[in-house]
Amino acid sequence: MQRKRVLPLAALLLCAPALAGTVPAAAAAPQAGPVPAPVPAGPLRILLTNDDGYNAPGIRLAFARLTAAGHDVTIVAPLTNQSGAGTKTSNVPSLTVRHPEPKVWAVDGTPGDSVNFGLSEVFEGRAPDLVVSGTNFGPNVAALASHSGTVGGAVAALDAGVPAIALSTGGVAAPDPVTTVNAMGPTLDFAVKLIDRLRSRARSGSLLPEGVGLNVNHPVIGADGKGTPAGVATTFQDAQALLKADFTDAGDGTWKVGVQVDLKTPARGSDVEAVSAGKIAVSPMNADWNTGPVDFAVTAALLTGLRP
After folding, report:
1. Is the dihedral of CA 101, 106, 111, 112 positive or negative?
2. In whole angstroms, what is the distance from residue 67 CA to residue 74 CA?
3. Contacts with 151 (C-beta within 8 Å, 6 or more apart), sequence order
4. Does residue 220 or residue 29 have the better pLDDT?
5. Taking 60 as the threshold, does the pLDDT of residue 39 lie above it?
């Protein structure tokens, strides 16, 4: 995701236990769409989505953890795995939607379709206070974020003027799935702290500056995935592609496709650098894909206090 300068995010984090690192620029222009109501004094109303599917371990753990933290959480997520769907919104005559249990809706479409359905139907007449997308397997850093369904779900919320956080668990060299699931616990512990921070700073306003979302990437630490990250860094999206496609001619008119990690030296202050160093990367993002300057000097002092 490309960023534009926005200083309200700096003000949001100032004078509170802050994130650790340097802060990139984010969107300056507000997004069109309904503005959510001021943050309530009681539990937050959260629309929870993902790209791994409504019954994936990460979203179920997120539902349990956010509910235990006192929030009113409703899952509106894809019926099937939609990893890599990006910001796609379906243009079809109809979508199948299931309601398999209370507080759970399964949409036979993309993360963007799920969020759009949730905002239009499940939360009709009153937008949620926050959309959380994830947590999902593997990082969504560098160019991966541009093609990520996890990030795509958050972008759909930003397009509608609703604050959003994308959550991902995994390092650049992803460990086995069991270890990643273990690391989802610390990911969600941090997410609860982050939401508490945003809520305390918002007072009677919105959780985030208008048009701004957060892309959070939590590394996998330790052999069991339950270790504590080295810190928190507010970052920007690295420019590198990170993955390289490898095509092999099968000789019968078809090609075999493989994907390899092609990790280059990350940019200083980027999400790839932070995750590679075992830190949680928090990247402000916007939904309009515009480019703007990154102002480290103004926000460098904001990143102390909020811990993994």
Report:
1. negative
2. 9
3. 1, 86, 87, 133, 140, 145, 166, 215, 285
4. 220
5. yes
